[in-house]
Structure formats: structure tokens, C-alpha cells
Write a structure and sequence with these properties.
The chain is an alpha/beta fold. Helix content is 43%, strand content 14%. It is built from ten helices and eight strands. It has a six-stranded parallel β-sheet, sandwiched between helices. It has a two-stranded parallel ribbon with strand order 1-2.
Amino acid sequence: RWMDHVVSVSGGQARKVLKTGVSESKSSVIHCAVNIDRFKTPKPEYKNYLGKFFATPPELIIGAAGRLSQEKGFDILVESATIILKKYPNVGFVIFGDGRLHKTLENQISQNGIGDRFILAGFRQDYDNFIPHLDLLALSSYTEGLPNVILEACAARVPVVATVAGGVPEVVDDNITGLLSPPGDINALAHNIDTMISNKLMREQFAKEGHRKVKNSFSYQSQAKSYMTIFNKLVGKDISIIAEDAANSLVKPVC
């Protein structure tokens, strides 16, 4: 409450900030951003690497990524996957990331009898190279700010199913750029995954619309412009001029 200004990464997060007593005049929303050029040229060999996570390469692969902690709802994804795999045994699931629930999720996967089709791939520095080769990205979180993993999937032209958590609906327009379900609802998430698996045209259309949206609304250029507007307002003058003067003062002639 004592800050001059508070920036939230989503409207959902901003509503929580306002509840703490921050005034609306001191609160702004500036969404996270993504560089779509990161996924401009997918590496074809990573499609094979992705398939090799499984004993038998799946026909379709649903991916997820994030910290293996309670708020990410990966236990819900495991249960939804168990339903899906009864109907589509040739589909595969993979989670990229690590955390304190790794062993718990590993046990859940084993107990559900889906160990050959649900892989915990761990933390990967080369995660960017795998994303474009996913057929679908699933986000099962209970709570979020604005998840970068969805921005990355859209940038890589991968369709999304997600829960209505935090700022997720600000990126995923239901039935336009993806499908949404309530947090913690195993059957609803499974239903949306099923819908996507069975409709290739829908996956392609959502991937196209998602890419268009992040390109137009979640670029670093638009993010930087929004921050500059706030800085200018707080300082009371054009901060870009101050930055230029400061840079010029550091330039000394060589004698």
C-alpha cells in the first residue's frame, strides 16, 4: 500500500492487489510478454526427441510445464489423463519441470497404471525446442498470475486447454483461442482435452488465433510502452529524455 504504483501482470492479480487497500489510481495491469521469434524456426530433430520419451511414440502428445507444486494442479491433469487414455491409448502426456511433488506425482501416475503414457521429463534448458512439436498444451492450475507457458504455446502455434485461473482468460478466449474449464474439475478438463484430440481442425484454428493474439497484444514492444507511460507519469516528464541525457553524460571525448 505504501508504493507509489503497483503493476500487476493480469486483471485477476490486480483485483487481489486492490483488496489489500491499494487505490485504483495507483494500480495498473501490464501483461507479461513473449518473443514469438523464439519459436519461428522449430528444430525438426526435437520431434523425434519428444517421441523418444515414450516406449512407443504416441500419435498425439499433450504437454504441460511448470513447477511441480500444489497450485499447478498437476494431480488433476494426471487424473484427467487417466480418463483420456482409456479412450485414446495411443496419446501421450508429458510434463516439463521439477519440484517437491515429483515423487508424489510419480506415484500417482504409477498407481493409475499410465506410466508408459505419462512422462515427467524434469527441468529442461532446451524446453523451447520441444514446445512447437506438442499437439496440445494443458494448464491445470488452481491459481495463476499470467502464465508464460500459455504465451509460449500460443507463440509456437500450439493450441491450449486451460483452467480459469488468474489471468488465463485474458489470454485464452474460450472457444476462440482455446478451451477453458474450472480449476480442480477433472471431468471438465478431460472433456476439453477429448474435444481437442478428436477435432484436428479445431486445434489448427485455435493455434492460428492464439498466435495472432499474442503477436498483437503480448509483445515486448507493447509491454515496454506501457511501462514507459507509468514511468513518465510518476516522474512528471518524459523518462526517455532523462535516459538519453544520462547516457550522453557518460560519453567522454577521446583525447
